[in-house]
Amino acid sequence: MDREIEIKIQLASQEHSKLLAWLEANAKFRTENRQVDTYYNNPKQPFTFLKDGYKDAEDYLRIRKSEKGNSICFKHWVKDPEDQTKHLYCDEYETEVDDTMQMHKILDALGYKKDIVIDKTRRVYEYQYFEFAIDQVKELGNFVEIEIKQEMDPREGHQKIYKILKQMGIKQIKILQRGYVSMIWNKEHDFAENKSLI
Questions:
Q1: pLDDT of the residue at 1
Q2: What letter would DSSP give residue 81?
Q3: pLDDT tens digits along 124-173
Q4: Alpha carbons 129 and 5: distance in angstroms, whole number
Q5: 3-class DSSP state of 22
Q6: 126 vs 29, 100, 152, CA distance in Å?
Q7: Would the pLDDT of 95 be above 80?
Q8: For residue 102, how many other CB atoms are within 10 A of its CB?
Q9: 85 falls in which pLDDT band (50, 70, 90)?
Q10: In b/e form, how buried is each residue of 106-120, taking b as 16+ CB within 10 angstroms?
Q11: 50 Cβ contact list (under 8 Å, min separation 6)
Q12: Closest to 64 in 3D by CA, of 53, 75, 55
């Protein structure tokens, strides 16, 4: 799918353990691998900009090197028309790459500049049409990305994610309004929004 509907959350240690136990008992474990993501910027027409005192972007160009396969991906985040401070979903275009070194050389030759590298270990589980990615990110900590793997309205997808978390017994979550790149760029800024599922 070219549209990515997901929510990135952070949980207190007890809630995180509860989620992992539920996944082990109910979901299908798919894979675990290390992913090294190199993000590029276009200096002639930068993806990045300053907003409210922090560095941000709505477009991302990434090369991913992974034990399970390499890829190049372009993402464009679409804002919620009802709340311009939040993103509703992401248009995502991704394809496999055999030789990441050659892909890096191509982008370098085109004038793109390496911006940041995100190094993480990811465990992936599947349950119905949900994908759960349990990420341990260097410099940042532990996070969970929950993605809807079928076509549906983004708001409906978000509600289904909250519903499955409630079924797990999760009562409190922190929703991350930005990705790992923004968190590394702006370590002094808290992008988390506390949400009660009770």
A1: 60
A2: T
A3: 999 999 999 999 999 999 999 999 999 999 999 999 999 999 999 999 99
A4: 11
A5: helix
A6: 7, 28, 18
A7: yes
A8: 10
A9: confident
A10: ebeeeebeebeebeb
A11: 56
A12: 75
Could you please report the per-residue DSSP string of 54-121?
EEEESEEEEEEEETT--EEEEEEEEEETTEEEEEEEEEEEEEE-S-HHHHHHHHHHTT-EEEEEEEEE
Per the confidence metrics, is the pTM higher than 0.85? yes
CA 8/CA 132 separation, integer angstroms: 10
CATH code for the domain in which residue 169 is found: 2.40.320.10
In total, how many domains does the chain have?
Answer: 1
Report the largest interatomic distance among the alpha carbons of the chain, rounded to a whole angstrom: 52
AA identity, residue 109: A
Residue 163: phi, psi to the nearest 5?
-65, -45
Please check whether residue 76 is in contact with residue 87, taking contact to mean a CB–CB distance below 8 angstroms: no
Domain around 64: 3-196
Residues 182, 160: Cα–Cα separation, whole Å: 26
Can you tell me the distance from the alpha carbon of 66 to that of 194, in angstroms, rounded to the nearest whole number? 32
Which amino acid is residue 133, in one-letter code? A
Report helix, strand or coil for 4: strand
Which DSSP string do the residues of 115-145 spell out, in sequence order? EEEEEEEEEEEEETTEEEEEEEETTTEEEEE
Q: What angle do CA 3, 65, 54 make, to 5 degrees?
A: 65
Give the integer Cα–Cα distance in Å for 15 and 182.
Answer: 25
End-to-end alpha-carbon separation of the chain, Å? Answer: 32
